[in-house]
Amino acid sequence: MNVARVILVLVFCTFFTASYFTNKYVLSILKFTFPTIFQGWQTSAGTLLLLVTWKLGWVEINGFSRSAAFSQLPGSFLFIGNIYAGSKALSLLPIPFFFVFQNVSEVLAFLIRTATHREKPPWMKLISKNLHFICPLYGSICLTSQFGPSGYTWASIHLFCVGAYRIFQKNTKTILLSDLEEQFINYLTSALLLASLAYSTGDLSGALDFPLLTSYRFYTGCLGSAIFSFCLMLATVKLKGSLSQEHCGIWFFLAKILASGLSLLLSIFHAVLSPVTLCCIILNYAGEALFLYSERFH
């Protein structure tokens, strides 16, 4: 791997960790749990930053037709479900266990691909996917008293939307839209829809009564979350364009390990996990590592 790719990987891991940490800080530490406002802010900022970077010539966004934009709308609605439910789940679950549930979306996509292509997967992949599925299922049954049932409910909705969006991307990928153009449509659709739902969901009135509304910590956290999330999106697009799918999967895995480990070490997140929870997390990551290893021989 050359120096440029090493720098890209380090930048990706840095923004990955920073993005989840700032989101967790706002959602769990400051307890700003109003998804239509918080995610609406992030997607609005993402839309604006993408337009600014495009005008400055830092990113390339070509003109796309109205039909191409409409073809992306189902994916945009799944994207909204992804970020809304993900925000609710992340506010209730520790970062490592949140990643465990995210891995289940890979099982959903894997099962649908296997059924569609009618192929018999290798035994290593079957074992890894069983670990991906069993660990969060066991955790949600046995650890409800520790995190509450609501976190698992939102995590389940989140993983469904993530898995469905991946399937949508694979089945409808077209040369009409680049990754950045897809993301721009997702951002714009999300910002408009979430803004329209802010009042009816009660999030707007709740946000106006938020006790830390005038605190610098709140504004710093929200600003950091928007910037880091946008930079993570750019780094992810660049990483996928520079490395193979296999190598991208490895670096995503290592980034999750890094973020999980640091979240347990930092006292600010108060992440106290029981031995059973830690066992579920370790086994789930072992399943992911086994899957990545099996991909080398596929």
From TrEMBL:
The gene is tmem241. This is Transmembrane protein 241 isoform X1. Keywords: Membrane, Transmembrane, Transmembrane helix. The chain crosses the membrane at residues 93-114, 126-146, 216-237, 249-269, 275-293. It comes from the Eukaryota.
